Please model this.
Amino acid sequence: MTADAVLPGLDDIRPQLEDFYKDLHAHPELGLAEHRTSARVAERLREWGYEVTDGVGGTGVVGVLGNGDGPTVLLRADMDALPVKEETGLPYASAVTVTDDGGHRRPVMHACGHDVHVACLLGFARLMARAKDAWHGTLIPLFQPSEENAAGAGAMVDDGLTDMIPRPDVAFAQHVLPYPAGYVGVRPGPFLSAADNLRVTLYGRGGHGSMPQATVDPVVMAAVCVLRLQTVVSRELAATTPAVVTVGSVQAGASPNVIPDSAVLLINVRTYDDATRKHVLDAIERCVKGEATASNAPREPRIEHLAGFPPTVNDDAVTRRLARAFADRFGDDFHTIDLQTASEDFSEIPDAFGTPFAYWGIGGIDPGAYAQAAARGSVQQDVPVNHSSTFAPVIQPTLDTGVTALAVAALEWLGASVR
Model:
């Protein structure tokens, strides 16, 4: 059974779905604080007949809808927003602020499109509950907290997710990206990079700025490390092996004539496979320790791993099957997407079950505006990207595309037995 048996109901629910999206966009919540969002999601799933467990991993929500014998399919949407001040000018723009641990007010915005993901998965879940004659099996819509902090997927797993729901035969997730709305793109193998955040503390011996001979200057040590780390990718990896090493912060000292005792580097690493990831992380450790030794530092640097995202690597067989179904449905709007340098923790959920998965992207940019930017050669400058204060997916056809993509993917498995 194709998605055609389910999607005609989209015309009926579109106005309510668009209203839900606008409300969600206007009321963003940070990771593990998605209380309003999760409550609204859980309420609707229960109303439509799903068996719902909420509070999973803090604020996660998972629904289960059984419909006879057949495969079990899990689909995930992330719910959290970002500490960004919205500057889109939309009539439903966020004006939300929260108080951080330091007592400061911080603006909050759905700057990464997670509101799109929630709305699309919820709309799809409603359509499937209304068209149970079109499919057989078990449907599991899962709404995950705190993706931005790489905490939510692991929190749900640690909270016993694998014992709460049936083991999925396949799992899916999608993300809105800065491509034209209507675009759908997937690729086998690596899709999103692994990400690792490191804090490196370099130790010197402080003293008077006029007497550097009596010190071990950690500022100079840090500067040399920054330059040295640029060679890890350019000189230790093949040109065909993608990776990024970024030193995003260098902090040392507070006075022009005082050489400090230490300097701190904050480093971000992006890689696409475990072997490259290990090589790059080992190289960073080797480089900073080597430069500390060369500087005659009084002690070894301290290297802390602050956070990490696993690589998102699509299952080849699942992705090939999915790509055929997407090509049939979307035609020229379906593409093999390029590698994406962003990162995500979704894979921790299917990995906990030993379940194969596929992850894809949908476009969210006004097609006309995108085409004009492409004609000017200014896409990079003129098209807002995720995490930008001006990132604002157009409501349509973005929502219709997201709901349709979820239906095509799920029914490729759940609809097979009723064809």
Residues 274-294 form the longest helix (21 residues). The two ends are 4 Å apart (CA to CA). The longest strand covers residues 170-180.
